[in-house]
Amino acid sequence: MSGSDLTQELLSLIQEKQLYPLFQPVMDTSRGIVIGHEALIRGPKGHPLEFPDRLFSLASQVQLLSELELACRSAAMEAFQKNAMQGKLFLNVNPNVLQDDSHPHGSTLRLSQQFGIAPEQIVIEISERYPIEDTENLKHAIIHYQKLGFMIAIDDLGAGYSGLKLWSELRPDYVKIDRYFIHSIETSSVKREFVQSILSLATSLRTKVVVEGIETPDELEQLQAMGVNYCQGFLLGRPAPYPVLEVPSSLLLPHHHVALNYQSTIASVVDTIHCVSAHTRSSEVLDTFTQDKTLSSLPVIHEKRVAGIIRREKIMEFFSGSYGHALYANKPVSYIMDEHPLSVDWQTSLEEVSQLITDNDEVDIYQHIIVTKSDVYYGVASIKNLLRRITELKVNNARHANPLTQLPGNVAINQIIEDQLSRARSFHVAYFDLNHFKPYNDIYGYEQGDQIIKWLAQILQKQLFRHGHFIGHIGGDDFVAIFKDTDKEQTEQQCNKIIRDFEQDITRFYHQEHIDLGGIKALSRNGTPVFYPLLGLAIGVVQPDPSECLSHHDVALLASEAKKEAKQSDGSHCYMCHRQKPRRLRQISPQQ
């Protein structure tokens, strides 16, 4: 078909509305919901312009890109409305169309109004794959869309050079990581580091990360372990005329994964290095060590499972004698390998691995530990890097821990809260504070006050650690607990158990005369004598709304307000706050 005929075909497809969308789901595997669908345009089946690459390439050549883009958006919105779809509609947009003066302004808003789709439901995806001709004009165009209420995503992050710059300047709602960095991510430490850095940056910039192109369960499991929630790819759902509405149970993030701290497992120090088959000739393995002086060992694999490990010094020893080559050159490496290497699962904690090394007197600090995943080879971990990581974690924990109770301090508390907010997860925060603690200190002394603080920390640990909840010590008599996987009723029950334990034993910290009186007499701040009841425990509990609380500062303010309410009651009390966002301070204008 000639070029002019194809151009006519393209015009016909646009004018006769023969283009149609397929929908690919974007899923939140931690919450088990479909958050939206990406619309992918197709021409009629078997048509020369059926697939988007050729369709958009031709439109660009014959200056019909603007017309094609509008036809695609219209087809996608019409199908979205017809199927009564919920959630977000992700629309791919060529960034150069947004800068085209001939492109009719306001057309996307008119289409959204025509089909009854709110602008905040529509996500305009700007792909890095297209060479951007004028970034300044593009920025103005995107800001215009944002002002109209549309959401913005940077698509294919990592495929080009402009994505990070746009991200920093425009603060998009979503970034979508290019498929290249996801393919076989479970075997590539470099790709894992790239994705981890993007996740960290996204947390700081309050941007949601969508990972595209997930095709295997191993890729999904690795990403989930790293804290990825929003997922897209053939494994979760192929592009189809009718939208996927539910997340298959097999793809949901298991609860035990949610509790994992990726940075404190052996997976955080895994390297992907060359491995050899058990059938490989020993002479070939010798050549590999000879060519790469940095290699200290090589995993030996048979049908994806670990058969053993061959160490540099071992193979050099075998080949060093007069008859070494003659005896071993043609033998398989399985003949001379170590069949019982130190091997651990990828989710083993660094502390457990450290204990294994300590208990094994034959382990060399320069050796590697083989890491497996579901009994399949995953990578290796250098013992030297492992010990360095453990030292870093211990130093960091010690630096930020409260010196009196050794519980995590403000830095760790804030990190946990930010992590929960960024993942849009439901969680409760309980703020614990002692009533009448200052007058107690005045009468009994700070040393006795410290004993009460340590005792309270023990109560919290006894009740909450076994359920996997986080406990932090802000300072003084103030503690914070973060309940990740409990509903309101469970949280309240556990807090009331803590109050019962507290009330049962608090009298052992008083002299009998004060127990008989039911309190102590001390001077108030203005110097007048005041009677203070026995110490009570005030607990303010909140369930922050991640869409309303922008950072840990908002959560802290909300929890402080709840704690103040709890302190209004006589004695110990747990106050369950119904509000999910803090009261904002009234802004005062300069004229007032």
UniProtKB/TrEMBL annotation:
Organismal lineage: Bacteria, Pseudomonadati, Pseudomonadota, Gammaproteobacteria, Alteromonadales
PROSITE patterns: CBS, EAL, GGDEF
Keyword Nucleotide-binding listed: no
Regions crossing the membrane: none
Residue stretches making up the GGDEF domain: 425-580
InterPro entries for this protein: CBS_dom, CBS_dom_sf, Cyclic-di-GMP_PDE-like, EAL_dom, EAL_sf, GGDEF_dom, Nucleotide_cyclase, Rev_trsase/Diguanyl_cyclase
Any one GO molecular-function label of the UniProt entry: cyclic-guanylate-specific phosphodiesterase activity
Record has Disulfide bond as a keyword: no
Annotated Pfam families: CBS, EAL, GGDEF
Listed PANTHER family: CYCLIC DI-GMP PHOSPHODIESTERASE PDEF, SIGNALING PROTEIN
NCBIfam families: GGDEF (TIGR00254)
Keywords: CBS domain
Occurrences of domain CBS (ranges): 269-327
Protein name as catalogued: EAL and GGDEF domain-containing protein
Annotated EAL domain residues: 3-253
Signal peptide positions (record): none
